[in-house]
Amino acid sequence: MVQDSRYDPLFEPIQIGPVTAPNRFYQVPHCTGMGYSRPQMLAAMRGIKAEGGWGVVCTEYCSIHQSSDDLPFPHASIWDEGDIVNLKMMTDAVHAHGALAGVELWYGGQPAANLYSREQSFGVDSVPNNSVIGLPRQTQAMTLDDIEQLRGWHRDAAQRAVDAGFDIVYVYANHHYLLSNFLSPETNSRTDEYGGTARNRVRLIREIIEDTLAVVKDKCAVAVRYSIPAEITEDSDELIKMFEIIAELPDLWDITVTDYGLEMGSSRFVKEASNQAAVAKIKSMTSKPVVSVGRFTSPDTMLAQIKNGTQDFIGAARPSIADPFLPEKLSQGRLDDIRECIGCNVCYAHNSLCVPIRCSQNPTMGEEWRRGWHPDRIAVKHADESVLIVGSGPAGLEAAVALGQRGYAVTLAEAEMELGGRINRECALPGLSEWARVRDWRLGQLAKLPNVAIYPDNRLDAEAVLELETQHVIVATGASWRDDGVGRYLSSPFDGCELDSVLSVESILDGKLPSGSVLIYDDDHYYLGWAIALKLREAGLAVTMVTPEARIGGWTSYTDEQKQHMQTLIAADVKMLSDLGLVSWDGKAAQLECVFSGNVIEVETSCLIPLTARLPDDSLWLSLQTDKDKFKSLQRIGDCAAPGIIATAVYSGHKAARELGTAESKKELRRDRIVATRLEPFA
Ligand code: ADP
Ligand code: SF4
User: In this predicted model, what pLDDT tens digit does every residue of 588-616 receive, in sequence order?
Assistant: First the structure.
């Protein structure tokens, strides 16, 4: 029973073709960085989402044939019997909690580099690979026979999906993969019956939907992923026209917007439920259920989607990563326990980096199987012992919550009046307000834990720590930005770093505003240079950003923010210079060298802000070393141990809390890999 009956509509079952979803919470297909090579990690993670109440749980993109291979980017596959066995682990894990399992059958085409299989990739035409790899190789323009072959592969994969126990089988017709290339007049220049008119361009998708329906019959529903522009204009006519032709064909529509940067835009650029006007348009054109994402984290926004008839399901990737138990918490009336996604796209970044995803908010993401971490349960304390945590940034707060939940007597000391560490200063910068959720969720949890005593405005030294006589001490004192330019490019301080006109990032974060013009030397390559530049521009200062890399904020290519990152800097009239390393500063100008030729140029500004690296604030930890035997355990966590992104600090705090008093830290990391018992004959 749902605690607050207002939310009942979110928990009503709904028919999708021959199957019934138990509620409206739908984890749409999303990348995990796990793919076919980490099937147990994947199955456990998807199963946890079903346990947390998601009524439908889908795979990531799942290749139907070896000529659609996206390595090095990890993807699922349904090529053979072995894949069926592995995928069945996932469907079983999902079914165990009464949810439906969906599979996103995928054929890459132009973006798939086929680096593993070395097969030729089919394409609408012979066009160059357009993935981030930019492989100097083209697709094989499909003949009518090739089209028949593709349909056969899709039918076979659909049958394997049935065999693996899936309830929903996708036809994947967006995200610039092969089927969407057939749809678009820009990418489809065919002159046969698969090109030209809208009816011809949609033909292959129509045939594949019909093929899939025929294969899965009454066992599975057929879903189609389809995109339309966020703003319906005259130009959207074509996609709408094609949609009309097939509107009633599948059992479910999974609708996205054509711009990926909007569909899964980060909170710096895109807010909750931004694309719902386009979704509502589609919904009005079909009687079939519709699902769509919108980084929904507010239960009231979710409810409004269903009540307004914008869509039938609350589609989610990131909200289900940040909180796999979101539906259950909502049904139990535990609204303030919901851990809201902050929209940082760190999860996606790790898929881009070809490793299992992680999350800034949910440290257990990806660790369900390999470490046995559950997102909503934690082992009770091993003994009646006390823990002191010094520092309340993301690492200290997370450790305090998890140790408090384990039942220890926890003392949390913070030097500042406000708890939150780096979050407090960063979330005050342009575009980063939603990041405050990292702090706020943890403060909300701490308020429910009477065994955690909090002491703000208490800067502890070693003597004060010893006086408290706790058995365990965790030092989470963070890190500070250095102002001498040392970082990736420079291994020693630049000449002139001691001049008053060199301003530290710390002083800017503290609210100090320089005057005149500013040069930000960004050898950090993430969001902070961008946020400081915009803040200074808002204050009317002329800003130049310089990087030794090819682009300002290069790491944002992994979070899929690079385009908007650059667009906003250009719009704010920030001058940008790249491939230049800092040599020196004379108080009036920076001397910068071309990273290739070494040629030096000068850029005149009133002041210089070096944004390069941080120094751990580890003096307390170091001064406690002589007394370390007085504690049962003494450890440093988060940025104080190794400065990094917020997700790393949260993870570090959580790990310390999980492992305290257990043998966990001594356990070897569980690895999900094939262990062959013998070398199969190969020649
Ligand atoms: P992390 O990202 O590792 O959590 P932060 O820099 O966000 O680190 O937070 C570190 C926190 O530790 C800051 O809020 C800082 O004020 C606090 N702090 C640093 N030194 C001390 C100290 N000696 N006593 C108490 N708090 C401290
Ligand atoms: Fe949301 Fe960031 Fe977690 Fe991804 S990593 S789910 S964007 S909080």
Answer: 999 999 999 999 999 999 999 999 999 99
pLDDT of residue 234: 61
Rounded CA separation 172/174 (Å):
6
Ligand number with the minimum distance to the CA of 349: 2
**Cα 61 to ligand 1 centre (Å):** 41
Q: For atom 11 of ligand 1, which residue has the closest CA?
A: 391
Task: Compute the average pLDDT of residues 493-510.
Answer: 98
The number of the ligand nearest the C-alpha atom of 455 reads: 1
CA distances from 74 to 71, 367, 615, 665 (A): 6, 17, 34, 28
Query: Which band of pLDDT confidence, cut at 50, 70 and 90, is reported for residue 359?
Result: very high
pLDDT in tens, 225-234: 999 888 877 6
Class of domain 386-478+618-662: alpha beta
Q: Right CATH number for 481-615 from 3.40.50.720, 3.50.50.60, 3.40.190.150, 1.25.40.10?
A: 3.50.50.60
pTM beyond 0.90: the answer is yes
CA-closest residue to ligand 1 atom 14: 421
Give 540-585 pLDDT, tens digit per residue: 999 999 999 999 999 999 999 999 999 999 999 999 999 999 999 9
Per-residue H/E/C for 357-369: CCCCCCCCCCCCC
Q: Give distance in angstroms: CA of 459 to centre of ligand 1.
A: 9
Contact 224, 253 (CB under 8 A): yes
Rounded distance from Cα 391 to ligand 1 centre (Å): 4
Collect all residues with Cβ–Cβ distance below 8 Å to 505 and sequence separation of at least 6: 481, 483, 528, 532, 609, 610, 611
Asked whether the beta carbons of 444 and 421 are under 8 A apart, the reply is: no
Please give the order of strands across the beta sheet that includes 386-390.
452-455, 409-413, 386-390, 472-475, 633-636
Is 481-615 in the same CATH topology as 386-478+618-662? Answer: no
All structural domains of the chain with their residue ranges: 5-352, 386-478+618-662, 481-615
Average pLDDT of the chain, as a whole number: 96
Q: CA-to-CA distance for 585 and 602, rounded, in angstroms?
A: 9
Note the ligand closest to the C-alpha atom of 366.
Answer: 2
The atom of ligand 1 lying closest to the CA of 420 is: 14
Q: Which fold has domain 5-352?
A: TIM Barrel (3.20.20)
Query: Is 645's C-beta closer than 6 angstroms to any atom of ligand 2?
Result: no
Atom of ligand 2 nearest to the CA of 342: 8
**What's the confidence (pLDDT) of residue 370?**
95
Q: Is 460 near ligand 1, meaning CB less than 6 Å away?
A: yes
Residues 426 and 462: their CA atoms lie apart, in Å, by: 28
Query: pLDDT band at 276, cuts 50/70/90?
Result: confident
Ligand 1 nearest atom to the CA of residue 620, by list position: 23
Task: Tell me which residues are annotated as active site.
Answer: 177
Report the first-to-last Cα separation within the chain, whole angstroms. 61
